[in-house]
Amino acid sequence: MAIGNITEIMLPQPLGLRLSHHNWLLNQPGTLLGKFIVVASCSYEPAKLELSRDYQFLRRIIDAQDNFIEIKALGFDLAIEIIRRWLSEARRDLVQHQWEIVKNAIRHCSLPIFIKLVFAEVFRWRSYTKLQDTHLALGVIDSIMMLFQKIEIQHGRQLVFHALAYITASKSGLSETELEDLISLDDIVLDDVYQYHMPPVRRIPPLLWTRIKNDLPNYLSEREADGVSVQNWYHRQFRETALERYFSEEDQSIYFHSMIAEYFLGVWGGGKPKPFKYTEMQIMRFNLPSADGEADRKVPLQPLVFQSKDGIVSRYNLRKFGELPFHFIRSKRFDDLFNHVLFNYKWLHAKLAACPLQAVLSDFDDAFVHIQDPHIKRQITLVADALRLGGAILSHYPDMLAPQLLSRLLPESMGHNLVKALLKQCDLEGPQDCALIPVAHCLHTPGGPLKYSLEGHQFAVFGFKLTSDCRYIVSVSNKFLTFDMSTSDLARAVAPKIRGIFQGLSLSPDDKYASAWTSTNQMDYQDIDNTTYFFVLLNSKVHHLSVAFSV
Asked: Could you tell me the pTM of the whole model?
């Protein structure tokens, strides 16, 4: 199985949820069957820690150095040979002066992605192409810039600009339907497209985007996100170049994120007409009496929950859960973020029912980073910590959201207007999901010594150890459970089917192995990063597990 990058890894879920790709990998190395091989690509730049995070994770769980292959520059000779063969397979060739242009470019850069861009460009050349039209950039970024410029000239700058900007601005990509809807809501593009005629329906013709996509062969990839097939940039450098070209000013970034936020909020969905103004050219050409107009853009509503005719929940709007908070924050529409997401009972309840708790908390963490007001940050922290404290219950029973928030946050309602508004919603709307509504403070309030509870053991815990970086805690009863201390998530569960109960635990200095002994004199050695383990039967009890790693 070949994977373009780690984030493409998906788990089959009833609701199509995307789980942590790290957790997926953590549970797979010891369970792959037969000759099943996973090939994943990731970036590594020592000076950019965030960019190299996936690489560092893979190095931690995979010991064999030979399993890592660095993608290096191809070199001049091999790059030329590859281009020759590609041209030959396409029954094409270049004249001498065109080959000199190609060779000059490859002397400056011979990375695989650059060779692909060079071939895509020279494939369009003819023997009679003018010399001034046979130009190649000398680097990857400049080549991508040239590609974008050519597509803009061919299909119209406004259309290409906005279409590629929406894809770049999205959190996880956009489906073709979503992209067409967004462009159809964008009057800057529509005014440019409909300069010379009045459309019966004010929407973008679908064929326009199809033509643009055909001129970006293999540079946009399709993948699954939130149960939907979406398009996104295949390579990181395309995204970085698009950011540089289309998001050079903050106003542009705010505009595109705000448009996507409005779409997933459903402002103009369900037949509601969106106002617009005709251009001066349109007014003169079509003798319009007024510059003001409005039109239904034929975009859908965006409810939190999709229901059947009988009122039964059929599925949740996972696309809205994934995209809306992200774009509210980056368009700086913080009031909408508070009212529709972070301090909205219906949103929190629906997302808890559809997604893991950590997906809900990540919205609060993202907002906390981007908001400067200390009073609002305090309220964000209060609600997020209340969710963490009740995480063990809410992960299994999201209908308990209202009782959890009310019983923990009632003392904090005074002086915190956003928290107070959320608790009022819990009081009014919570009984629809759970009849238990506390009238007084009765559970731990955020800010105390209790951060969250770690649950999962059915028997008493006789041993637990923190890893050296204090990120994970490994615990034993009749099984090994590993918890992520930064999120309280259960990162790993291994049940080795022992006889008896584990009565002690020790970790190796590098945190890769755990050793535990049982009440039946059985020693278990566990590879923490994989699912492999083995047993040793002992003649007598072991009282000091530190000797286990010398065996």
From this structure: 0.83
Q: Mark whether 146 and 125 lie in a shared domain.
A: no
Query: At 50, which amino acid appears?
Result: E
Both 259 and 401 in a single domain? no
Q: Are residues 345 and 253 in the same domain?
A: no
Q: Are residues 364 and 474 in the same domain?
A: no
Residues 349 and 391 in one domain: yes
Q: Find the farthest-apart pair of alpha carbons in the chain and give their distance in angstroms, rounded.
A: 100
245-248 contacts: CB < 8 A, separation 24 or more?
245/145, 245/148, 246/161, 246/164, 246/165, 246/168, 247/165, 247/168, 247/169
Task: Tell me, yes or no, whether 206 and 125 share the same domain.
Answer: no
Q: Which residues contact 50 (CB under 8 A, 6 or more apart)?
A: none
Residues 327 and 345 grouped into a single domain: no
E strand or H helix that includes residue 476: strand 472-476
CA angle 488, 170, 42 (to 5 degrees): 65
Q: Which of 85, 111, 138 is the last residue of a domain?
A: 138
The verdict on residue 458 lying in a domain is no
Q: Measuring CA to CA, which residue among 541, 510, 513 is closest to residue 529?
A: 513
pLDDT tens for the chain, residues 1 to 551 = 445 554 444 433 333 333 344 444 544 444 454 566 777 777 777 777 777 777 887 877 777 778 888 888 889 999 999 999 999 999 989 999 999 999 999 999 998 889 999 999 999 899 888 888 888 999 899 999 999 999 999 999 999 999 999 999 999 999 999 999 999 999 999 999 988 888 889 999 989 999 999 988 789 988 888 889 999 998 888 999 999 999 989 999 999 999 999 999 999 998 999 999 988 888 888 888 888 989 999 999 999 999 888 888 889 999 999 999 999 999 999 999 999 999 999 999 999 999 999 899 999 999 999 999 999 999 999 999 999 999 888 988 999 999 999 999 999 989 899 999 999 999 999 999 999 989 899 988 888 777 777 777 888 888 888 888 788 888 888 888 888 877 777 777 887 777 778 888 888 887 778 888 787 777 777 776 655 544 444 444 444 444 444 44
State how far the Cα of 477 lies from the Cα of 335, in Å rounded to an integer: 47
Q: What share of the chain is helix, strand, coil (3-state, %, to 5)?
A: 45, 15, 40
Q: Do both 370 and 421 map to the same domain?
A: yes
- The tally of CA atoms less than 13 A away on the side-chain side of residue 150 is 15
Task: Look up the domain containing 254 and give its range.
Answer: 139-304+313-331
- Cβ–Cβ < 8 Å for 191, 162: no
Cβ–Cβ < 8 Å for 394, 352 = yes
Identify whether 456 is part of a domain. Answer: no
Distance, CA of 240 to CA of 237 (rounded, Å) = 5
Q: Which amino acid is at 395?
A: S
